[in-house]
């Protein structure tokens, strides 16, 4: 927690220990544009213990961060946004303990604000809980269009531990997705490198030998006429990895408007209104040596269950006719 004093000095508390300077300021100086914050750091207007710093400089407990005069006063004078009804957030929390939250994110909601999005799930949870001394930080991300399990750290120590698990490959994630087409193999692995293509107006992950290593496991759960339900396990964590690998084998995910096909039968015939991709399971080691592994599961949302039911009903009607 940072404490402000009259001289525009921010004192660093234990919950902010180890954070990057830019991330700390973006979190602490809400309402100040991102470009302004980076400009202040670059010009030397932000100091750590009276010394110039870089955006990626790490701050420590009891450090003193100086920011330009009147910046805090200006921030305080801004109008506060209207309070929204965020009671629905409590229903998304699958598990909570001292160090972290497990949230079942709905489809259509970004995990954080930015790039034209004024707010995301993490900002809404912070606003809803409004606990003065609680740190809430995303441990990882899932796409805006994807629903399912998301980890949120409540302490810096928990965030560091969970990030370590991700680096070590100790975190296992499973998704459920409906792949278009039929005659799928019962299980297979896609090992194709991915890079981000920014040549178009929107970012897109493409298969490229010069890209980063990307491996995805596919396991057939249920075969249907128009599409099949798969359990998908990303071994690596590249942007849009599952979506790009599915499209690469010409079995795109139903409802994928970026990587899918023009005439998606599940959208056109069965009423799918979103990407059929759901982060269904996550597991990772316990924080103490005597603690067993954590494992959490989020069932498919009702709107996706209804799509499967509609497809099965159609299959049955076709077989009887």
Question: What is the fold's blueprint, element by element?
Answer:
Blueprint: E1 2-4, E2 9-12, H1 21-28, H2 34-42, E3 47-48, E4 51-52, E5 64-66, H3 71-77, H4 89-92, E6 93-96, E7 100-105, H5 121-129, E8 137-138, E9 147-153, H6 156-168, E10 172-180, E11 187-191, E12 194-197, E13 204-207, E14 215-223, E15 227-234, H7 241-248, H8 265-270, E16 277-284, E17 294-297, H9 302-320
Parallel strand pairs: 9-16
Antiparallel strand pairs: 1-2, 2-5, 3-4, 3-5, 6-7, 7-9, 8-9, 10-15, 10-16, 11-14, 12-13, 14-15, 16-17
Folded structure, characterized:
The chain has 321 residues and is α+β, with helices and mostly antiparallel strands. It has three domains: 2-77, Roll (Structural Genomics Hypothetical 15.5 Kd Protein In mrcA-pckA Intergenic Region, Chain A); 82-168, Pseudouridine synthase (2-Layer Sandwich); 171-321, 2-Layer Sandwich (Pseudouridine synthase), CATH 3.30.2350.10. Helices cover 26% and strands 26% of the residues. The chain is built from nine helices and 17 strands. It has helices at residues 21-28, 34-42, 71-77, 89-92, 121-129, 156-168, 241-248, 265-270, 302-320, and strands spanning 2-4, 9-12, 47-48, 51-52, 64-66, 93-96, 100-105, 137-138, 147-153, 172-180, 187-191, 194-197, 204-207, 215-223, 227-234, 277-284, 294-297. Strands 6, 7, 8, 9, 10, 11, 14, 15, 16 and 17 form a ten-stranded mixed sheet that branches. A five-stranded antiparallel sheet has the order 1-2-5-3-4, with no helix packed on it. The chain starts with a strand and ends with a helix. Residues 73-81 have low confidence and may be disordered.
